[in-house]
From TrEMBL:
Sample GO molecular function, one term: ATP binding
Protein's name in the database: 4-diphosphocytidyl-2-C-methyl-D-erythritol kinase
Gene designation: ispE
Residues the record lists as binding ATP: 106-116
InterPro entries listed in its UniProt record: GHMP_kinase_C_dom, GHMP_kinase_C_sf, GHMP_kinase_N_dom, IspE, Ribosomal_Su5_D2-typ_SF, Ribsml_uS5_D2-typ_fold_subgr
Pathway: Isoprenoid biosynthesis; isopentenyl diphosphate biosynthesis via DXP pathway; isopentenyl diphosphate from 1-deoxy-D-xylulose 5-phosphate: step 3/6
Coiled-coil intervals: none
Keyword field: ATP-binding, Isoprene biosynthesis, Kinase, Nucleotide-binding, Transferase
Domain GHMP kinase N-terminal: 78-156
Taxonomic source organism: Dictyobacter aurantiacus
Origin: domain of life: Bacteria
Amino acid sequence: MRRDDHASPEAIEKVRFTRSYAKINLTLDVLGKRPDGYHELATIMQTIDLYDTLCFSIIDEDRVSMVCNRPELSNEQNLVVRAAQAIRQKLNLTRGLSIELNKRVPVAAGLGGGSSNAAATLLVLQQWWQLPLSLHDLWEIAASLGSDIPFFLTGGLALCEGRGEKITPLAPHWPTAMRWLVLLKPAIGVSTATVFRQLTASDYSNGSWSRAAETALQTRSTLRPTDLYNSLERGVLAQYPEVAQARAAMLQAGASYVRLSGSGPTLFSTFADLPAAAWVQHQLQQQGYEAYLTHPITTTSDGISYF
């Protein structure tokens, strides 16, 4: 019996679709630089209803191929291909795959689109092919591919520490005053490595912002806009004038506050009601900005659940 005969070919559907959801960083504390060159983090992350779609097809050849509606992403270095290859190599599988990726989540935007794609690939192959891989096995593969990928194996609301790979799921108690999100993606890309490399000592924190936000969310106490913090925000606003201009545009359009997600350049603001959120999105789109209106989501055993 071949190692990839965990489920007989006749028992497996030839095609499988899945969605791959983005995230925002509600908080992001950078505690300092680690001996391995990475930075020690504490961050509250939350999946949102902005997603890419992946289509997986079984092929008779012993290989993995991928095409994307963004041609520059159709290559073997894409995290989707690397995730599929990692599983195939771990279990010595020969079953081939053709993957189609329809990108809607902005690229290099601080929203975790590529990491989410990789995690979705790991989960799909485990379930679809009925592979003998535990969640811990998937976590190990995910952590070897990228720091944000382990979070997307479960998604929802979580405290992420270490390089981001140490995940503590949090109860999905999202404030009603923050149930709508407006995201603005400036028309530039930001290098995560560059942003971290240009951190100064004054940008580091002790993790207290993320811990305070975690406590507020779990006790359902008030979480104020001033309680949200991102250690990378000062540097990004200083280094990228387009991001600073976009932040000013959001405030002028009616957002009460604006925060950076991850290493950016995407900015976000939260709203208690749809009309206010929709108005801000409309104002930004009228100015030519790439703006999204979305909301937080969490995953359950039955699929996606909305707050």
